[in-house]
Design a protein that fits this description.
It is found in: Membrane. This is 388_t:CDS:1. The chain has helices at about 10-30, 40-45, 50-85, 90-110, 115-145. It is mainly alpha-helical and about 150 residues long. The protein has a single domain (about 5-145), classed as Four Helix Bundle (Hemerythrin (Met), subunit A). Helix 1 (about 10-30) packs parallel to helix 4 and helix 3 runs parallel beside helix 5 (about 115-145).
Length: about 150
């Protein structure tokens, strides 16, 4: 079986960053500009120039992006360690692909939801993605690293 788990690392980076680009699109479309000198302040500064619905979505996109950046190192290290420990490729492939899919679902829910009930699904999806990373660590620990 081929090992494509390392390809899920750049895929996870793309998934972590696409909410950032959607946020930029929303701000630029509503305000007609993008401040590239201080881009992290764009959403805050644009609040009065944007409709509240679009501004809230831009804020959620920003949060989804930040969460993706926070969880990526945990995932990336788990994939690398599982590969180093000799966890079967089929297992790593399945889990790493499942992580990327769970993060796509997480982003979709986060960026498009404003209800408390559906926010619970977002938390569940986040928990699944973190559980996948932890599973890879545990599988690697059980296998052990050979010198």
């Amino acid at each position: 079986m081929s090992n494509y788990s390392l390809y899920t690392l750049p895929a996870a980076v793309v998934v972590a960053y696409y909410p950032h680009f959607i946020k930029g699109y929303l701000v630029s479309r509503q305000t007609g500009k993008w401040n590239n000198i201080s881009p992290r302040d764009n959403v805050i500064k644009a609040e009065k120039q944007m409709t509240q619905d679009v501004w809230r979505k831009a804020k959620r996109c920003e949060s989804a992006h930040q969460n993706g950046l926070e969880t990526f190192p945990i995932f990336a290290c788990s994939v690398i360690v599982a590969n180093m420990a000799g966890v079967p490729f089929s297992t790593i492939n399945f889990l790493s692909t499942s992580y990327v899919i769970s993060r796509v679902i997480y982003n979709f829910i986060y960026m498009n939801n404003e209800s408390a009930g559906v926010a619970g699904l977002r938390t569940l999806t986040w928990s699944v993605s973190m559980g996948i990373s932890l599973s890879l660590y545990i599988l690697a620990a059980r296998k052990g690293l050979s010198p």
